[in-house]
Amino acid sequence: MEDSTSPGLWHIPPDGSPVARVVYASRSTVRGSIYAEMESIRASALRHNTPADIATALLYQSGWFIQWKEGPRDALRLAMHRVARDPRHDSLRIIHCSEGGRLLCGPWSMAIVQCTDPAIDMASRVEELARELDNGRQYSPPCVWRRISTPMRHPGAALHDDPDAFQRILVCAASGTAPFALVERLARARREEVVHRRFAGARNLDVATDYVDFADGDRVLRVIAMARNGLTLPLTRAFLPDYSHIVLLLSGDPDRDVALLRRVIQACTGLASSAPPLLGLAREANAHGMISSLARAQGLRYLTAQGDVEGRTGCWEAIRIHLDASRRRTDRISDGIT
Question: Are strands 207-216 and 219-226 parallel, antiparallel or unpaired?
Fold first, then answer.
């Protein structure tokens, strides 16, 4: 691997756009608690990077760190020199380097993915992306993050021209843990693995988000359950344009349902036409009235569905009908290739 102190690694594109953006991968040398170490990294990053207007997302998975940074070109260069000297990692590889608009809307996000991936598989994906970058093929930061951390492995994805052009649906609930029950039920019914992840922000700790991949007719789906507190994390918001729908499991309690919608509105602020449509699922049709009006007043498309909201029988069926009826082309982004 290229030495992490090589000057060529730190080339940031010249001025001419809002921020410089870098994603790098490195092998962890941490021997103790990884979560405690990531909290220490967070404290240091907030102390150094926030005054410099640098936003960061950090991932740990299978012995590897992935870090995505955005900020002013000169400040980011200095930050990357500091990163190179950090003894908590080695074998650093740049896998994305660009300039453009900010995608991370806050100073810090971090994630831990609990999976069975061996470190050698992560290393293989890192090397592939590094080679593609060297050959002039650039992917968006969210695409790079997903290709490293959560690539689509379902064999049905190989039937598409772009195996990453699969449909993604985010599911949140106004109360309870129904989205997670739904993901577990879908996984059991199709004998697929549930991938467990934990996200955190600058101050928020330990937000759960699980997902399952499965074939549904001629398409491959990823259904993602997220705790509602995770909706406004910078990392979550950066991925929102990739979702075909955000499914809201409404409780029937107006206060809780409006609180959930307000989180979604906050997360979608500034996304304009790239914000995915909302699909509200409620037991009673009249639960949609105020939610629909508030969503549409904010320029968000709101679809209504009626059925079970507890993640049990009928929940997915009620959602699926609307996915079929308003199916969007899943390759509209081609996963951010530029």
Answer: antiparallel
